Amino acid sequence: MSRGVRAIPTEAFGSALRRRTADHWLVHGDNGWRSRLPVRRWHGPAEPAVVALVARCAGPTLDLGCGPGRLTLALTRAGVTAVGVDISAQAVRLTRARGAIALQRDVLAPLPAEGRWAHVLLIDGNIGIGGDPVALLGRCHDLLRPGGTVLVELEPPGPGLWCGQTQLALQAAGGGSRLGPPFRWARLDTTAVAGVASAGGLTVREVFRLDRRWFGELTADNSGAVGPVD
Question: Helix, strand or coil for residue 28?
Answer without folding.
Answer: strand
